[in-house]
Amino acid sequence: MTGVKGRGPSILGTLARFRARPRGMLFGTLGNPRPVGTRLSGAEIRAVRERLKPTLIRLNQQRQTWFEATENQLRLKMGAAALAGLVLGWFGMGSVMIGLALMVGGAFFAFLMSVTKTDETARAQTKHAVLAEMADELLGLISVPPEARTEALSKEVVERWRLLPPVRVITVDDRLVGERDGFDVAVSRVGFQFGGSSNVELTQGDGMVFVVVEITDPGARGADEDTFTIVLGTDAPAMLRGAPRLTYGLAEAESGDAGFDARYSVFGDPAPLSKEVRAAFAPLEAVARCDKTGTRDVSAGGGLRPVVLMRPGHLVVMTPVPVFDGALEPPPYWEPLEPGTLIAAFASDLAILDDHLAAAMALRAARRP
After folding, report:
1. How many structural domains does the chain have?
2. Residue 92 belongs to some domain of the structure
3. Angle between the N-to-C axes of helices 96-139 and 339-366, in degrees from 0 to 180, rounded to the nearest 10
4. Distance separating alpha carbons of residues 137 and 129, to the nearest angstrom
5. Which of 282, 334, 333 is nearest to 308 (CA)?
6. Is 286 found in the same domain as 149?
């Protein structure tokens, strides 16, 4: 997609020459993501490619339509903004140089306003369409549409967990749901921005990002929410470590295992933390790879420890991850979707999410009578 027919070189096509292809910053250090490490066999790759074929054809046609529509809008809006800036500076302020500066600034502002909105819409729809096929084929899970994710992880739901400080903004970038071993499961990539006052202006550092795994026994829905065990790493940032006590008034308890209590703080009922359950935290720690700044990937097992909520029939595991901005990321909509690179990258990121789910399922299994 380098231009609109009959219109010469395109604005978006020119931009594409200078923009690096996004790969993502969730599963890796900020700006330096983990390499693609797909575990698919040749037969699995062929099956995914065949299943994705009609979807990619449809998406590429749709993305071409987005491209042409945005290109036309850009030409009109940037031209109008540039003309308005030139007139304002030249005739309103009496300076040709100011007029030229305002012309460039107006065109650039119009570009940002048009491209950002279209880019995010294209990104969300493309991600969901690809995940709808690949997550089902590889993991047996269903991708939840973007408009339905926020409801599933609303502020009310999160507050009932009693795990986090007051939350101002929740961003659910991906959510996969399904069934494993007779339990309902959900795996999400979620960003939380904290702050209880609406007068406080939020910045990127005011939050954290997690892979959130929820496991529910279908027969235990509506169970008593006042019976719970909360476990969080003693290495957690202060705002997270103090949330159960400061935000919800919970008292700290002890598991009876000095080694475990040195690594984790416990709130609520410590009785479910049997020897087997405590040992099952090892798989959770093995997939922890986020450093204390929330921006860098570290070696497996060396990251911030998970936050865990255990209720009768319900388990929530939240593992901190570096800031997300593109794992499971398609290329910008002015570039075609190539199955070879797309399948490898998405399969690699899905495998990491599956590792988080498998670790949480191991903890769930240890809780069984």
Report:
1. 2
2. yes
3. 60
4. 13
5. 282
6. yes
Paired tokens of 192: 């939380």
Phi-psi region of 188 (alpha: psi -120 to 50; beta: other; left: phi over 0): beta
For residue 2, is it within any domain? no
Domain boundary among 88, 110, 139: 139
Q: What is the domain extent for residue 84?
A: 11-139
pLDDT of residue 143: 94
Residues 192 and 125 in one domain: no
The answer as to whether 218 is a domain residue is yes
The DSSP code sequence of 57-118 is HHHHHHHHHHHHHHHHHHHHHHHHHHHHHHHIIIIISS-HHHHHHHHHHHHHHHHHHHHHHH
For residue 3, is it within any domain?
A: no
> What is the distance between the terminal CA atoms of the chain, rounded to a whole angstrom?
58
Measured CA to CA, the distance from residue 271 to residue 199 in angstroms comes to 41
Please name the residues in contact with 99: beta carbons below 8 A apart, sequence gap of 6 or more. 85, 86, 87, 88, 89, 90, 91, 93
One digit per residue, pLDDT tens: the chain, 369 residues?
A: 444 344 445 555 555 444 444 434 345 555 566 777 767 888 888 999 999 999 999 988 887 776 676 666 666 555 555 555 555 555 556 555 555 555 555 555 555 555 555 566 777 788 888 999 999 999 999 999 988 888 899 999 999 999 999 888 888 888 999 999 999 999 999 988 887 655 555 454 557 889 999 999 988 766 667 889 999 999 998 888 889 999 999 999 999 999 999 999 999 999 999 999 999 999 999 999 888 888 788 888 889 999 999 999 999 999 998 876 456 778 776 778 888 888 888 888 899 899 999 999 999 999 865
Strands (E), the chain: 28-29, 32-33, 141-143, 167-180, 183-194, 207-216, 229-233, 252-253, 264-268, 307-311, 314-321
Query: Cβ(367)–Cβ(60) under 8 Å?
Result: no
d(CA 153, CA 159): 10
- Rounded Cα distance between 188 and 141, Å, is 12
Q: Are 55 and 182 part of one and the same domain?
A: no
Question: Which of 220, 315, 307, 214 lies closest to 267, judged by CA?
Answer: 307
Residues 228 and 341 in one domain: yes
